[in-house]
């Protein structure tokens, strides 16, 4: 399965597509929409038992900008983001594509990567 890269240029996040690069939005806007420069995911007691989660408090915090610069996305995610234009704005004045991207991203993070749970 092909994965599509991200690229941050001049403070703007771009997402790779088969036909080139698509503008997602300003990194400042994305950080505001996800709640800040850092994002925390909390794990319950059962989830903390996983060997890879070496954290007694059950919280993993990461830098949003650094993470976005390194993420890749599948064709379905890229297609969803591409369907929404940059010219339309949401009720807070953010480009609709930027807002939707941030919403999808936080839903995936909050689902701890379980993308299938998003359709439930």
Describe the structure.
The protein has 120 residues and is of the alpha+beta class. It has one domain (3-114). Helix content is 35%, strand content 26%. The chain contains 5 helices and 6 strands; from the N terminus they run βββαβαβαβαα. The chain has helices spanning 27-34, 45-48, 64-70, 75-82, 96-110, and strands at residues 4-9, 12-17, 20-26, 38-42, 59-63, 72-73. The strands form 2 sheets. Strands 3-2-1-6 form a 4-stranded antiparallel beta sheet. The radius of gyration is 15 Å and the shape is globular.
Q: Which descriptors would you attach to this protein?
A:
alpha+beta, two-stranded antiparallel ribbon, 120 residues
User: For this entry, what is the oligomeric state of its chains?
Assistant: single chain
> In which range does the helix fraction lie?
25-40%
The secondary-structure class comes to: alpha+beta
Shape, please? globular
Largest sheet: 4 strands, antiparallel
Strands in their spatial order, largest beta sheet: 3-2-1-6
Strand residues, percent: 25-35%
Q: What order do the helices and strands follow? A: EEEHEHEHEHH
Overall pLDDT score: 86
Cα end-to-end separation = 23 Å
Radius of gyration: 15 Å
| Helical run tally | 5
The figure for the number of domains is: 1
Low-confidence stretches: none
Number of strands: 6
């Amino acid at each position: 399965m092909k994965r599509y890269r991200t690229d941050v240029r001049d403070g703007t996040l771009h997402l790779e597509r088969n036909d080139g690069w698509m503008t997602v939005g300003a990194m400042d806007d994305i950080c505001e929409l996800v709640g800040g420069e850092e994002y925390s995911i909390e794990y319950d007691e059962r989830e903390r038992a996983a060997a890879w989660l070496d954290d007694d408090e059950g919280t993993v915090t990461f830098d949003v900008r650094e993470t976005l610069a390194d993420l890749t996305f599948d064709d379905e995610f890229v297609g969803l983001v591409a369907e929404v234009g940059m010219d339309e704005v949401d009720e807070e004045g953010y480009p609709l594509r930027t807002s939707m991207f941030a919403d999808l991203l936080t839903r995936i993070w909050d689902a701890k990567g379980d993308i299938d749970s998003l359709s439930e």
